[in-house]
Design a protein that fits this description.
By secondary structure, the protein is α/β, with parallel strands linked by helices. The protein has 2 domains: about 120 residues, 3-Layer(aba) Sandwich (Rossmann fold), CATH 3.40.50; about 60 residues, no CATH class. The chain contains 7 helices and 6 strands; from the N terminus they run βαβαβαβαβαβαα. A 6-stranded parallel sheet has the order 3-2-1-4-5-6, sandwiched between helices. Strand 4, helix 4 and strand 5 form a beta-alpha-beta unit. Helix 4 runs parallel beside helix 5. The radius of gyration is 18 Å and the shape is globular. The two termini are about 35 Å apart. Keywords: Oxidoreductase. It comes from Tepidiforma flava. InterPro entries: Gfo/Idh/MocA-like_OxRdtase_N, Gfo/Idh/MocA_oxidrdct_glycsds, NAD(P)-bd_dom_sf.
Length: about 200
Amino acid sequence: MPVPVVGLIGCGHIGRFHSRNLRGAIRAGAAEARYVAVCDRDRARAEAFGAIVGAELVTDDAAELFEFPGLTAVYICTETAEHPALVREAARRGLDVFCEKPLARTLTEVEEMVGAVEAAGVINQVGLVLRYSPVLTVLADLMRDPGLGPLLTAHLRDDQFFPIRGHYRSTWRGVSSGPGAGRSSSIRSTTWTCSGGCSGR
C-alpha cells in the first residue's frame, strides 16, 4: 500500500492537536505517512506552524495545498462554515478526508458532504467522535441502572472534559456565522450517539 501523503488546512487551536498527534504517530512508527503541507488563512501562523512541522509547502491558499504533487489525504481543521466546500473539493480530487467537528452548519450541508465522499469512494472520518467519551460512558451506565428510572433530560455544560475542570472557556461556539456555526449539529450528534450507544444499539 502506498504511503499516505498528508496536508493539513487550519493551523489554529484544533489543528495543533491533530498535527501533534499525526507527527507523534509517524515518529513512533504507529503510522507510516509523509506530512508535507500546511495551510492557514493567516500566513504568519502558517509559516510558524510549517517550521515546527517541517512542511515542504506552507500556504495561505487551500487550492495550492490541494495541488501538492502526490497528496493523498487532508486534515480539515478550519472554521465550521468552511468545511463543506473543502470536503467537497478534497473528495472531487480523490483525497481521503479527516474533518474536524462539527461537520457543517446545517443538516443539508452535511448530507451533501456525505454524498461527495461516498460518491468519490474516499476514506473519511469526523473528528471528536464522542461515543467513548467518559461523560457519555458514565451517562450510559446511569441510564442502564434500573433503580434510577428512565432518563427524563440531560444537560451537558462542557463537551471537552469530565469531570468538568472549568478551564475550557471558549467563546467561538457563539459565533453563528463561522466557527461555532454547527454547535447545534454537535448537540444533535451527541444526542444521537448517546441514544444509540446508551441503549446498546
